[in-house]
Amino acid sequence: MTNSIKKILFVFGTRPEAIKLAPVINAARASKRLKVSICVTGQHRELLDQVLNVFNIIPDYDLDIMVSNQSLFYSTSQILISLEKVIKKESPDLILVQGDTTTTFVASLSAFYLGIKIGHIEAGLRTGRKNEPFPEEINRRCVSVLADIHFAPTLRAKMNLLKEGVKEDSIFVTGNTIVDALNYFVPIARQQNINQIIPLLEMNKKKILVTAHRRENFGIGIKAICLAIKRLSEENDDLQFVFPVHPNPNVAEIVKTLLDRDNNRIITIKPLDYLTFLKLMDSCYLFISDSGGIQEEAPSLKKPILILRNVTERPEVVEAGLGKIVGTDWNEIVKEVQVLIDNPEAYARMQSDVNPFGDGHAAEKIIDLIYEMQG
Q1: Are residues 169 and 211 in the same domain?
Q2: Is 122 known to be catalytic?
Q3: Which of 77, 141, 309, 341 has the most CB atoms in a 10 Å sphere around its CB?
């Protein structure tokens, strides 16, 4: 990297991006050698704002592009048009993006159009399937083509990039910044009284956290997940399911139809703020989820995770024996949850002190690497 990097613009738009970028933003802010600006697209408005408040991040620019039930066409075009003015005004040396969202892809494309260097945090994740997850798999592949610096969370992610022809001297294995965020905030979250926030929780029951929001699961997949939860709740009176329901109508309307009943074994709630969600995760027995982030958080919390997908871009959690892919076949979901409920040895095998996603110092490594590029 021949050009000095002194001015960084962070661009992000969703809650997961904000959580994973917050440690990097804080590390960059602590520097006296880097000028930091922040632009949020508002791709996910309410969920994003929760995290900004928790991490005390005040954006310099808020594009506020979200509308109800927005399409990919709408969000892509609005972000692209809106970012041009911001990037031209800031004229940064480097734009940092994270992950695989529409915001990440469009910000990278915008930077490319304007000749700005791109740093991609959490680079190299792949399922190898074009539509799983959709549209994230293609988003991240496109970003890898556009990016100049690739901060890979694991060695496997680095190998994925090398196989695609990315130059090795532009790839840096740092660990995942989600571990940084958890190490800081879990002790704070544990001070909360979760029963004051979710009064229906019964402490004598094993609580299972459910999350589902992937586009590829809309429709039949979400229905199958709900049916599995319903069956498990009927057959296990010692279980209690907690389902923070994503506001997307493709999820919320199905959940409301199938699960909103007068049944204390299934608690459907609105999305929680980050600290409360961490406390809930810490209080639960296991997770069933189609979330990418929770696959990374589960090992840090030493909780098993059953993955509601056909394939994962985070195979490290499966290879370490800490997670298992169950897809959205409701019979398979029921079977695998029941195994972990009935078999303490099977449960114990899915816990470990070793975290495949890093040591909690990823943000420091990223900023140190950027220092080294100042020349």
Answers
A1: no
A2: yes
A3: 309
The yes-or-no answer on residue 136 being catalytic is yes
- Which residue out of 93, 122, 296, 313 is catalytically annotated? 122
Any catalytic annotation for residue 213? yes
Pair 207, 90 in one domain? no
Q: Please indicate, yes or no, whether residues 216 and 239 belong to a single structural domain of this protein.
A: yes
Q: Which of 120, 156, 214, 246 is catalytic?
A: 246
Q: What are phi and psi of 306, to 5 degrees?
A: -100, 120
The rounded distance, in Å, linking the Cα atoms of 153 and 40 is 23
End-to-end CA distance of the chain: 8
Note the pLDDT tens digit of each residue in 173-223. Answer: 999 999 999 998 899 999 988 888 888 888 899 999 999 988 888 899 999
pTM for the predicted model, two decimal places: 0.89
Catalytic residue among 17, 90, 93, 136: 136
261 catalytic per annotation: no
59 and 112 within one domain: yes
Q: Of 215, 273, 282, 368, which one is the catalytic site residue?
A: 215
pLDDT in tens, 231-271: 999 999 999 999 999 888 888 899 899 986 667 899 999 98
Pair type for strands 94-98 and 61-62? unpaired
d(CA 41, CA 37): 13
Q: Which domain holds residue 257?
A: 193-349
